[in-house]
């Protein structure tokens, strides 16, 4: 065990092979507030910002905000916000210390401090990585106005709990003070994420205005709807959970302790809609693609990367594979992913310049990376929130085009089977989903398969009022019968894919 930890004081004692921040951190001014400082943000946006700071753009330091847990703050604050990014490919690991995060705040502990940094005139961009479920959408896609945290934030404007509450209150205070609004940049896997967050926050602000008895341009809703920029972005980098073995290995390499290093792959992509009235870093100088329309890139990533990731996760779990590389090395799962891509590619935007052949070849290489040990159980979390944009949308478009979504629908069936397998062939709570309680109650009813699939679709809000709904239900029910009778081997064999295939 080492006796000291990573910090500004220990930076220059690190081994030469470790890359350290190439700038004076004391001269960095906070210009970005990030909500949801998890491992992905630290491997992705924070690394891009670190490059910008090293190039002399010192006005874009990051203030991190955790909306729930204090874990990240507790790990990074004693380290002056520093952490190690371990970029891993099979047999090779590059270590880089990232210095772009300065202060760390925990919203439940001190909402006033969070509102203070959000209203600081130096804050010109607010980025978010808070996962799909934290946007608090109802089954129909609108704001879940009955959610207890939304109800709380409407009644307690100065002590918010949600991203919606913090953003609306901060923008209201900035407007009252004559401070220009910040740009809100969503960095999550939501379809049209900027427009989606814009709509949800406007809905929240309308409820807020109604409660205050203000109307029209006197309220904050009109300000958010017409004066605040919400560019969309597409993010991509595989970031497996950090293990104790990772911490021990990194400490050995550094010669000091790092409470929370982050593991990632060499590949990194960020496509951003270029709409920043208050200015932005020169991200394009460091590999970020600035575009007028993120949509085609977003669709390709959601349907080809994220969709196949979900397939690998659920089929992998049901086949006994703990990590993505092991599941992808299974010839039957590998063949299924190829067929899934072939089914999804025709649903992507035409004439958008997408090179799907190169993209899927690169994905195959990334999924084969044995150094990442990306757990299938980690990817399996929150399937009811992820599958609509990753799988269900593609399946419905297949039906509309007269095609048969037999591979896409197996992914939905595998999700249901994996959920039902927890506490039986899989460990209880091996992965989690926002619908775990109603799903468990549904599984206990032992309904006929098609009736049960229909009930799951109702719970998750899949294909509501869509003419292709019954077709999807029937395909999923057929796959689910195969999965229950003979596991993934039988379900894949029914599609002409056998385990001996190479």
TrEMBL record:
Organism (species): Rhizobium loti (Mesorhizobium loti)
Membrane-spanning parts: none
Residues of the Mannitol dehydrogenase N-terminal domain: 31-284
Protein name: Fructuronate reductase
Domain Mannitol dehydrogenase C-terminal: 293-481
One GO molecular-function entry: oxidoreductase activity, acting on the CH-OH group of donors, NAD or NADP as acceptor
Pfam families found in the cross-reference section: Mannitol_dh (PF01232), Mannitol_dh_C (PF08125)
InterPro entries listed in its UniProt record: 6-PGluconate_DH-like_C_sf, 6PGD_dom2, Mannitol_DH, Mannitol_DH/Oxidoreductase, Mannitol_DH_C, Mannitol_DH_CS, Mannitol_DH_N, NAD(P)-bd_dom_sf
Secretion signal span: none
UniProt entry keywords in alphabetical sequence: NAD, Oxidoreductase
GO BP terms in the entry: mannitol metabolic process
